[in-house]
Amino acid sequence: MKKFHPECMEKTPCPLCCAEEEFLLHKFGDFCVVQCKKCNFVHLNPRLKEEYSIDFYKASDYFNDYDGNYFGYESQKRALKKTFKNLINKLKKNTLIGPRLLEIGVAYGFFLSEARPYFSYIAGTDYSQEALDKAKNYANELWLGGLDDIPEKIEAFDLIVLIGVLEHVYKPLEFLEKCKNSLKEEGNILISVPKFNSIWYKILRDKWPSFKIPEHIHYFTKDHLEEFSKEANLKIIKIFYHPHYFPFNVILSKLGINLKQKTYLNRIDMPFYDVMLTVVLKKIK
Ligand SMILES: [Zn+2]
Predict the structure, then answer these.
(1) How far is the CA of 38 from the centre of ligand 1 (A)?
(2) Is residue 104 part of a domain?
(3) How far is the CA of 231 from the centre of ligand 1 (A)?
(4) In terms of residue numbers, what domain contains 236?
(5) pLDDT under 50 in the chain at which residues?
(6) What pLDDT, on a 0 to 100 scale, did the predictor assign at position 193?
(7) 36/17 Cα distance (integer angstroms)
(8) 147, 125 contact by CB (below 8 A)
(9) How far is the CA of 74 from the centre of ligand 1 (A)?
(10) What is the side-by-side strand order in the sheet with 183-194?
(11) Cα-to-centroid distance, 50 and ligand 1 (Å)
């Protein structure tokens, strides 16, 4: 675990209910994953201050170390695209596809590349310029930065997508409210976060791969995500149960078995369920 200067760290009350009392669940170096005694929400405390974590996302090598080892984001391209294709089929089946799409945190544009045929206007953001360069073929407009860097006068969107984003966000409530302001009245927000109370967490405990420290600061269950949404005047209208694909060699590496990059096993993607909690939200009227 990387060491950080104490001045880069901060303590925080519960981001959901503001209570101060907490249980320690796991310790990773100087960072603790804690559970609020009042509302049970799980978060990182202490955590890195926001300005230092944003430096992480701006770094050109952020996606190269995507999986905490030598499997970069690019090497998981095919598996991720399969995952996203499946997700888009679910959106299509539920008639949640509208003409204008916004994705916050586009990474290399793997989701956008699958979404491209179904939307007439696609926009997105990312903190990494390198990521935007890779994603640029799949979008009409991309902005460097986050939600605050979207031009104010932009027309509202039919669908806003946050995949693997909310667990990084320091003020989830404010963030959801801002998303809502960029959403059409009848629009939808798709949120996908690592599922905290999943079978994988229960089995793997502190080896759970979604303990990506120090970047993942919030760990959502469906109930807690619902509470944040309600506070932001949004409601969950749909939960998607969908597979998340991983290349076989990534799974082996998690078990401590490292194969050479170029074996035929590299070409096999395995579907796992209960990895992500994926929901669709609508404005409460
Ligand atoms: Zn709480």
Answers:
(1) 5
(2) yes
(3) 14
(4) 56-283
(5) 70
(6) 97
(7) 8
(8) yes
(9) 37
(10) 141-144, 121-126, 100-104, 157-163, 183-194, 276-283, 234-240
(11) 20
Task: Compute the CA torsion angle 67, 72, 74, 80 (nearest 10 deg).
Answer: -10
Q: Which two tokens stand for residue 205?
A: 């405990």
**pLDDT on residue 260:** 65
Residue 202 in any domain: the answer is yes
9 alpha carbon to ligand 1 midpoint, in Å? 20
Give the Å distance between the CA of 225 and the centre of ligand 1.
13
* 21 Cα–ligand 1 center, Å: 8
Cα 14 to averaged position of ligand 1 atoms, centre (Å): 5
Token readout for 42 is 């799980």
Phi, then psi, of 35 in degrees rounded to 5: -120, 130
Neighbours of 262 (CB within 10 A): 9
In contact, 115 and 163? CB cutoff 8 Å:
no
Q: Which residue matches tokens 């209208």?
A: 237
At residue 202, φ and ψ (nearest 5 deg) are -65, -35
**Does residue 10 belong to any structural domain of this protein?**
no
Instruction: Say which CATH number the domain at 103 has.
Output: 3.40.50.150
Inside any domain, residue 122: yes
DSSP state of 41: -
Q: What's the CA dihedral at 160, 219, 82, 88 to 10 degrees?
A: -30
pLDDT at 165: 96
How many domains are there within the chain? 1
| Number of Cα atoms under 13 Å in the Cβ half of residue 108 | 17
- 57 Cα: distance to centroid of ligand 1 (angstroms): 27
The predicted structure's pLDDT at residue 257:
76
Take residue 61 and report the two structure tokens written for it. 């090598």
CA of 274 to the centre of ligand 1 (A): 24
Query: What is the 277 CA–ligand 1 centroid distance (Å)?
Result: 20
Distance between CA atoms of 73 and 96, rounded to whole angstroms? 27
